[in-house]
């Protein structure tokens, strides 16, 4: 069975799902989803080790409830992207920035905790926001695409086949919770009204307040 690129799952798990005021309708299909690979772009909601690889391991109690020790996730158990991988019968995604024990044959994770859509002009220690904003994550993906195929041609088996790499049309623009909170902190003077105005901002933009899962339809070729 051969897979075409339209069957690859590209995921952007966005923190706005935490304050979703207009949940999208649930769509149930009778045909199961079959995705051979997952590529993820996001923040701490699905960071499986990116920020830990760049700035030091996430300390306990992160990872303790399920893995028994820190594993790069800013969570004491599994993340949504872990459950996505499990449900598809795929291994947990390796972080692109992690150089130890990684395997990218079934996808890669470019998410880092504290990431935003808008490029950052401050350091992590200054603002608490990751320097790996969405544009940087895309640059990483582009580099990954080129270098992984070069390595695979040389015999490296831990890289994905070319047909598993998503194409640009699979990507879409969205908005991230970290961007909203940063906007709130910079533009609202009254501390007491900060959260309220944020929620009002989201309430009138229901499309942007959803957790976006960019799913390409499974179109397999027999």
From TrEMBL:
Q: Does the record's keyword annotation contain Signal?
A: yes
InterPro entries, per the entry: GDSL (IPR001087), SGNH_hydro_sf (IPR036514)
The entry's keywords: Glycoprotein, Signal
Q: Does the keyword Glycoprotein apply?
A: yes
Extent of the signal sequence: 1-21
According to the UniProt entry, its GO molecular function terms are: hydrolase activity, acting on ester bonds
Into which family does the record put it? Belongs to the 'GDSL' lipolytic enzyme family.
**The protein, known as:** GDSL esterase/lipase
| Species in which this protein is naturally found | Hibiscus syriacus (Rose of Sharon)
